[in-house]
């Protein structure tokens, strides 16, 4: 219907022109299926920011990120023990 046509037009505009589009909705139900970033607001303040769908899925990047994250945590633990 109209909702899907609108979503397709916005997605196409974003893809072809690189336009950043900001949409506001009372619920994340429809937005989370095509938005790349979800920003939640509570009484006019940002309450949380979550990733939406990612267009590029690269498993190698994810495993590298996990490795770096674990490495950082180990360093933090060592620093805590020294104090």
UniProtKB/TrEMBL annotation:
Residues 56-83 have a biased composition (Basic residues). This is Uncharacterized protein. Residues 46-83 are annotated as: Disordered.
């Amino acid at each position: 219907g109209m909702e899907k046509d609108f979503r397709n037009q916005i997605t196409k505009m974003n893809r072809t022109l690189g336009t950043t589009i900001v949409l506001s909705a009372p619920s994340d139900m429809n937005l989370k299926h095509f938005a790349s970033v979800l920003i939640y607001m509570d009484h006019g303040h940002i309450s949380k920011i979550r990733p939406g769908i990612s267009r590029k899925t690269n498993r190698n990047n994810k495993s590298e990120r996990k490795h770096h994250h674990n490495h950082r945590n180990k360093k933090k633990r060592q620093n805590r023990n020294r104090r």
